[in-house]
Design brief:
Elements: E1 17-23, E2 26-30, E3 34-36, E4 38-43, E5 48-50, E6 56-59, E7 65-67, E8 72-75, E9 79-87, E10 90-99, E11 103-109, E12 114-116, E13 120-122, E14 124-129, E15 134-136, E16 142-145, E17 151-153, E18 158-161, E19 165-173, E20 176-185, E21 189-195, E22 206-208, E23 210-215, E24 220-222, E25 228-231, E26 237-239, E27 244-247, E28 255-259, E29 262-263
Parallel strand pairs: 2-10, 12-20
Antiparallel strand pairs: 1-4, 3-8, 4-5, 6-9, 7-8, 9-10, 11-14, 13-18, 14-15, 16-19, 17-18, 19-20, 21-23, 22-27, 23-24, 25-28, 26-27, 28-29
């Protein structure tokens, strides 16, 4: 009696993905920030593997966050969205919340200001945020000077000089600070007064003029010997480098004392 045998062909295929897990499952970033997601596949043979770079990534709301092919999500708007990884017909997801942009740095301008004793300098603080935006924080920042004897800074960012020297000035908002070095230089001449103001001379006579300078720190000094003297009508009167005028002929001459850009 012959044996009867039945056969079948069995094909074994590689394990298939049965589920995907996206991590972190819930996360939050500031607008302008980024979050790296990972996708782990569980296969039909119960093995697992990282498929972050081989699955397809998507965001439920691209106005809140976008996600690239590597699973890196970027916050572009405020709110929450679902980030999904897909492999074939299997997908997994996670929730991403995007919050208000965070302050990352503060820049003070002008950088390394220098101003004369007796004067003030307006400083400005500009904040740079995680989304690339900037904001004027001048009146919101807390201002400090490392050496108040040299200069102090008020709540509006105005630095007032007190003595010649250098001090470090900082602007702080929360835990973020920016700083610069402020230099106070010696007082500079602010105005010049020539006396006597309206003298009358006979031809051949002389008149000694005096130049008195007022400086930015409020001090007053005799600057007769350091200014440049001039007459606008040398035919009527001449004047020497030390302010001595001589009447040459009948007429009117205006006598000036100049130092730099300051004239009296």
């Amino acid at each position: 009696m012959k044996s009867i045998i039945g056969t079948a062909s069995l094909t074994v295929t590689p394990p298939t993905v049965v589920s995907l897990a996206v991590t972190p499952t819930s996360s939050s970033i500031a607008k302008g920030g980024a979050q790296q997601f990972s996708a782990t596949a569980t296969y039909s043979d119960n093995s697992t593997g990282d498929v972050t770079g081989s699955c397809t990534w998507s965001s439920a709301s691209s106005t809140i966050a976008t996600v690239n092919a590597s699973g890196s999500a970027s916050g572009v708007g405020i709110g929450s969205t679902t980030i999904t990884a897909t492999s074939g017909s299997v997908s997994g997801s996670a929730v991403l919340s995007v919050n208000q942009p965070i302050l990352q740095s503060i820049a003070i301008t002008p950088l390394s200001p220098s101003f004369a004793l007796g004067t003030a300098q307006q400083l400005h603080a500009t904040g740079a945020y995680s989304d690339g935006s900037t904001l004027d924080l001048t009146t919101m920042a807390g201002w400090t000077s490392a050496d108040g004897g040299v200069a102090t800074v008020d709540s509006s960012g105005i630095a007032t000089s007190h003595a010649v020297g250098v001090t470090n000035v900082s602007a702080t908002v929360g835990s973020v600070s920016g700083s610069t070095t402020a230099s106070v230089t010696p007082a500079v001449l602010q105005s010049v007064v020539v006396t006597p103001a309206l003298p009358t001379l006979a031809v051949g006579m002389t008149q000694q003029f005096t130049a008195t300078g007022t400086f930015t720190d409020g001090t007053v000094q005799d600057v007769t010997a350091t200014v440049q003297w001039s007459s606008d009508n040398v035919a009527s009167a001449t004047i020497t480098p030390v302010g001595l005028a001589t009447a040459v002929s009948v007429g009117i001459a205006n006598v000036s004392a100049t130092s730099g850009s300051v004239t009296g």
